[in-house]
């Protein structure tokens, strides 16, 4: 039996529709945890594959490189980078990526003004440095999310192919 979990990483205050790290994880045989957080980090042996789509992974670089309006909005949502730097560092998944064992697909829009491209690049660079299986799909004509139909199709096909290669081809029983 396969299960799918969607993890949304945000500040302790709750989930935001702006600038969250969305991680889709698929388990080959284990049930979805009742509290799903950044499961690739918290439960590295549970999941075989994950996807990061335009997510914040390092609050320090996020606040340093975000547009002023996004920084102002995000300070209220996630924490003030001047007065809560330690909290934001602890919340940043980038500092825990050494625990990731699952194959990872990272997708991001080059023109993202909500979450700077550097966030995706950090994930890819860190996972590669750690010898992990990581793929990167950059949409040069998109921002935060996919607006154009061809890009939505490409994203969906890429997701399906990624999970097929990392789940079904590795464990054909998962397709049953």
How would you sum up this structure, described in words?
The chain is an alpha/beta fold. The chain has a single domain, classed as Alpha/Beta hydrolase fold, catalytic domain (Rossmann fold, 3-Layer(aba) Sandwich). Helix content is 35%, strand content 18%. The protein has six helices and five strands. Strands 1-2-3-4-5 form a five-stranded mixed beta sheet, sandwiched between helices. α5 links the parallel β4 and β5. The longest helix has 20 residues. The relative contact order is 0.16.
Short account of what is shown:
The protein is an alpha/beta fold and 176 residues long. The chain has helices spanning 39-42, 59-65, 68-78, 85-91, 118-129, 149-168, and strands at residues 3-9, 21-27, 49-53, 103-109, 134-139.
Predict the CATH topology. Answer: Rossmann fold
Assign the structural class, choosing from mainly alpha, mainly beta, alpha/beta, alpha+beta, or little secondary structure. alpha/beta
Compute the CA-based radius of gyration.
16 Å
Strand order of the biggest β-sheet: 1-2-3-4-5
Helix content: 25-40%
* CATH top level class name: Alpha Beta
Lay out the secondary structure.
Layout: E1 3-9, E2 21-27, H1 39-42, E3 49-53, H2 59-65, H3 68-78, H4 85-91, E4 103-109, H5 118-129, E5 134-139, H6 149-168
Parallel strand pairs: 3-4, 4-5
Antiparallel strand pairs: 1-2, 2-3
